[in-house]
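Subject: Sanity check before I submit

Could someone independently write out the structure tokens for this chain? I want to compare against mine line by line before I put it in a report. The sequence has 348 residues.
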Amino acid sequence: MAKFKIATPAGASFSTAGGGYDYEMEPLEGIDAAIVEGPPDEGGFIRFAADADAVYAKGMKFSRRVVEALPETCRAIVLGSVGVDSIDIAAATARGLPVTNCPDTFIEEVADHAMMLLLAGFRRTIEQDRMVREGRWREGRPALLQIPRLMGLTLGLIAFGHVARAVAKRAKPFGLRVIAYDPFIEELVMVEHGVLPATLEEVLSQSDFVSMHAPATPEAEGMLGDKHFRLMKKSAIFINTGRGPTVQEPALIRALQEGWIAHAALDVLEIEPPGDNNPLLGMTNVTLSAHTASASARFDPARKRHVGRELALVLSGKWPMSCVNPSVLQGSKLRRWQPVSMERGPNS
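---
Independent answer below. Compare away.
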């Protein structure tokens, strides 16, 4: 039996089946640890993880009940995703338990996808494709004669984290003016990226494209509603590659049905996968993808190796590199080791 037990719910994460844990175990070489699967339900996992030294969180929600039941021996909850909405972070922080994510593993892919949705929505790619397939060739050009030139339009970013910054970098060569709202980021950081700081109202009212990048925190849940979509231009395109619950979906549906905005390009929805009765599925002014923005050939190897590195650090008694609740680190039994700042919390 291995010295360290890494408890994880049985099954794959991100609907990526198979593959085992070879990538995660690479950084754990030399550490007497084993990743062991347990039941993917609250009660079963609580019993299974009663002697866990760390948790590899995937495939289920880690509610307050689950987090509070983890043993004192548990050194961290490690995620293989950017988003941490599957974990009750407040409960983990109250326990003094570090939670880690993969903050920079998929940035380029998601930024590429956001720009793809922006361009596809703007140039009506799906509608144009449908016209050709349905023998409506002559309708294509007149449809595009109704839209302005892309150069000189304004892209508004809601939140200015890693992905939003990468989107801004991609948008500049297209001639887009970029503005951003983020109350947690210094305005000088935006200026350094060639982005103009703005209020939320200014982003919504001035932008031809509004790109949502807010994380799914309790504070950001349902952040955009009726009053926000009413502030947007009737010609505006709304893009979301962040998290579905940050938007009140009934309000977005009303905005599209009643012409408050022109188009929505969405990689994320409030409920995934959507039910057959979701009106967004039948709308011609909506471009959809199946929460795939982060996907690429490097997706699984990169995130799984990151998980392995974090597990190796905490099982070696060291601070993890990507702690989303860094206030717990000073009071933990783990020791600081990084020679350089990781730009978050007490380690910055």
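---
OP: Matches mine. For the report I'm noting this point. The CA atoms of residues 254 and 260 lie 8 Å apart.
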